[in-house]
Amino acid sequence: MQKIEARNLTKIFGGHVKQVREMLAAGKSKKEILRATGATIGVRDANFSVEDGEIFVIMGLSGSGKSTLIRMLNRLIEPTSGSVLLDGEDIAKLGRDALLRVRREKIAMVFQNFALFPNRTVLANAAYGLEVRGEKPEVRNARAQKALNRVGLEGYENEYPHQLSGGMQQRVGLARALASDADVLLMDEAFSALDPLNRKDMQDELLELQAELHKTIVFISHDLNEALRIGDHIMIMDDGAIVQCGTPEDILTHPATEYVARFIEDVDRTRVITAGSVMTRAYTVNIDSDGPYVAMRRMRANQVSTLLVVNADRQLLGMIDARDTMKLIDEHRNDVQRLDSIVQTDVPTTTPSTPLNQLLAQFAQTALPIAVLDEHERLRGVVIRGAVFAAMARREVPSNA
User: Fold this and answer.
1) pLDDT at residue 143, as a whole number
2) How far apart are CA 208 and CA 175, in angstroms?
């Protein structure tokens, strides 16, 4: 279900709007428009949607338009044209009072520079949004305290911002957003001012909170490793335009342009690409209907020396090999024999969501293909060692990029 949808969202800074639009329609670049008109393209014709309850990361180099875009979602920056739909309501068309209501009740923002009031306590900072909304002191303080406890700041409610570390100050900003109980959190490079250890801690905190609260989060970042770690979907921008949007795995395995390929070239792919994307079809035999003759014929037809054994529901039972199958046939040529006696049950398994770095650790312990099972123990496919190494080395960029 879509929570946010942007349609043809455009921001032009400066005059000559009509001329700039004509140049955009003619395919002129941001630099050409700046040179001809003095106007700057902040965002050009952005179309995307954010699903309810996901973390949607917007990335790009400095000047790509990502911060302008996130501020148009709550109209801190007014769009030049286009629409922003929140639960189907076009924010771009709201009057002042309706817009304030949306900002106070539906959308909260967490800033890069913390944006805390130095003369207010941690509790008062966390309760500020509720105070602006007009909540009674006992109500807002109780909710702010609950939010502070949730982000690990219990006991610090009477401190002041200057008494806290950078990471703790950012937690106060996050608590303020959570206290408002808004459906949508906009986070503009919220962790970029933190040192690496605090940054990782805040990423962990965000993922834990998201698992509990299921907010819709739009997160701006210039750090691809951060985006890959926390994002359900990632959108990459360049010169105000969207160049690719997809899952982390989509972007790593199928970069749409040379720009995106350069963006991802130093990423540790083994932490993002999963077993589900590299698995292949498994050769199987059904223990409920197939015997050793069928199994042997299937091995020869597919030129393999092993088969995975499943039941009628495709639940994995184990594996048989050609030597044991042939021996069973030789010993019982005149009998109808089931395969139960030769099934080996120590088959390595994994799930579709397992990242490649964990598969590599498994392959260090076994020479067998790894069976991929779903949540019901049903066989989905197999991963072979060569497929893992091929995925690690792959660089797919369109030939016309």
Assistant:
1) 92
2) 14
Q: Are 64 and 240 in contact (CB under 8 A)?
A: yes
Angle between helices 166-179 and 196-213 (to 10 degrees): 20
- Count Cβ atoms within 10 A of the Cβ of residue 372 and give its class: 0-12 exposed, 13-18 middle, 19 or more buried: buried
Cα angle: 20, vertex 24, 28; to 5 degrees: 105
Q: Is 153 helix (H, G, I), strand (E, B) or coil?
A: coil
| Token pair listed for 319 | 């594996």
- Dist. CA 107–CA 186, nearest whole Å: 7
Scored b (16 or more CB within 10 A) or e, 82-112 reads bebbbeeeebbebeeeeeeebbbebbbbbbb
How high is the pLDDT of residue 401?
A: 39
Q: Tokens 């001329």 map to which residue? A: 19
pTM score above 0.85? no
Spatial separation of the C-alpha atoms in residues 394 and 254, rounded to whole Å = 9
